[in-house]
Input
Amino acid sequence: MKEIQYEIVKEIAVLSASESGYTKEINFISWNGKEPKYDIRSFSPNRGKCGKGITLTADEAAALLEALQNELNSGD
Output
């Protein structure tokens, strides 16, 4: 099985942290040398392991931001 490589190009924010030290983060990451994308996933304390996550292009991230702003501002 091919080893997956990643480079965190830009750290954006830690969204939460668990008692075990894992953090849920949003970062700008290049996976296997490809064009960087926005990425939301959990990481172990030393970033040696990462959980399942989601990667988003800039357009997808903008659409998510708009959808969340609409949802949070709707007051429902």
User: Anything to note?
Assistant: The chain has a mean pLDDT of 94. The domain at 6-73 is CATH 2.30.31.70 (Transcriptional Co-activator pc4; Chain A). The chain has one helix and four strands. The longest helix spans residues 58-73.
